[in-house]
Amino acid sequence: MSSEYQVVDCNECKQKFEIKAIKVRRLENAVDLNYFVCPHCKREYTSFYTNTDIRFEQKNVQSLYARFRNAKTQTTRLKIDEKIKASKVKLRTMMTELRQSIDNDLQNGVN
């Protein structure tokens, strides 16, 4: 196994494998399930969920990184860096809340 990919142990079949691709499956309400699959036993592992708002915020972070790379002054870079940090905190919160909501729905039998 090369070190290019993250190596994980499957909880089901106990085999080691590299996460070579994150797959995406569209769920209800424009929610995307991002997951990977054990190549040995085909068990799916959820990486994260996104919705329209999260995807918008992810694009915002990408845009901020591009602005950061092109910034001409240190002052501008610092301002953009603060915006990146704030946006990443917001994203983390949004993603946690979405995952908790979906997990709660699954536990309660809501599809």
Keywords for this entry:
111 residues; alpha+beta; N-terminal domain of TfIIb; 2 domains; two-stranded antiparallel ribbon; Transglycosylase
Quick description:
With 111 residues, the chain is of the alpha+beta class.
Q: Would you write up a description of this structure?
A:
The protein has 111 residues and is of the alpha+beta class. The protein is built from two helices and five strands. It has helices spanning 52-70, 74-107, and strands at 6-9, 16-19, 23-26, 32-37, 44-50. Strand 3 (23-26) and strand 4 form a beta hairpin. The mean pLDDT is 95. It comes from Paenibacillus selenitireducens. This is Transglycosylase.
Cα end-to-end separation: 37 Å
Spatial shape = extended
Q: How are the strands of the largest sheet arranged?
A: 3-4-5
Mean pLDDT: 95
Largest sheet: 3 strands, antiparallel
Task: State the helicity in percent bands.
Answer: 40-55%
**H/E element order:** EEEEEHH
Would you tell me the structural class of the helices and strands? Answer: alpha+beta
Number of helices: 2
| Total strands | 5
Number of domains: 2
Low-confidence stretches: none
Alpha-carbon Rg, integer: 18 Å
Report the β-strand fraction as a percent range.
15-25%
Protein name: Transglycosylase
